[in-house]
Amino acid sequence: MEIDIMLDFDGTETSSDDLSTYGSTPRQNYKPTHSKSRRKMIFPVSSSLDPITIGAKRPSSDNIKIVGGRGYDLRQPIPVKYASVRERFLAARKNFWIPNEIPMGEDKLQWNTGQLTEAEMWLFKTNISYLTAGDNLVPDNLVNAIFQHITANEMRQYLRWVMCEEANHIESYLFVLESFGLDEEGQGQIFTLYQDMPELVEKVNWNLTFTNNVVNSDAPLGSPEALRALLEDLSSYYLFEYLFFPLGFSQIFALARKGKLRNTAQQYSFIWRDENLHSSNGLWLIQQIIRENPEIWDAAMQDRLRAIVNEAVKLETLHAHVVMPDGGILGMPVNTYINFARFVADNICKNLGLKPLFGIREHPMPWISEYELNQEVNFFEGRVREYQTGSQLTWD
User: Fold this and answer.
1) HSE-up of 323 (CA within 13 Å, CB side)?
2) In a domain? residue 296
3) Residue from 253, 232, 291 nearest 67 by CA
4) In a domain, 192, yes or no
């Protein structure tokens, strides 16, 4: 006789003996009995909090899943099932950079000698304030919500590196303000500026909602309900990397086109290079979850993700009007900026296999590609080296 022991999702009570050695999270333990019956073991979703099992076998690639994998040790770096994820990690590691390597003397002079207009100063301050908050939100989302679902070691390894890069971006924003000669109080006034702007607060809280939906969910890992919440959160993450960040960078790139804050724009170009890889990985992760769990990609889920993209554009539109209250700056009218957001949103819909929302076919700001790095610069040696180019955004 064969007895199937299934992991159910009905919240069955678990005794204190079933608690993980490393925390209070209940985990099902299925122990063989002395019965002669043969038992088919179906394990809970693998967790990094699972205790080590002596004599456990190495996982096979057939068992590994990007999310919801069961019955194997997540600490094992091999086998690598998803080679493209591993390649992204190696490419990102080659591209690591340090903000302090970029000279900031020209921007410091402009900042301290009144070469920026009042509108340009406002745009810069609100820009770096929001982006700093955003580069804090992304790793917080990864570590608190997304990471617990990932059951492929190569993806976990790359996401660790993503968090390292986001920390480096925050250091870049700090370095920019420090290089201007601002003391801690002056920097703090800029970094907290977004908190006094309802439009930016709403935008930050919008992303936090998806993170908290995953964190506070009672649905067991691997269940359809948990995967749907994760997919929504990953969509907001993808929107951050592919829409919110590039739109934010474009504000400073527009100033750089006029000869203003070109050093800061160079910092942003390096950050954008990292975010390109992050967005590519975010898209791949969404698509792979759908490939492995096609039952969650129903009409309701597709409509929901399309609505999330539309919500993001509405938030970006409000953001644009509050940071460019006079209708934009020279070279970047606010309406052109909003159309850029809509253009990117349509690309996101296409990438997800969804119907575009706005039907904008031509890039409203094609000049932005001038600031997308195709080369790696060694600032100490003054030489230029080709770098990994596979992470560039495409605007077709």
Assistant:
1) 30
2) yes
3) 291
4) yes
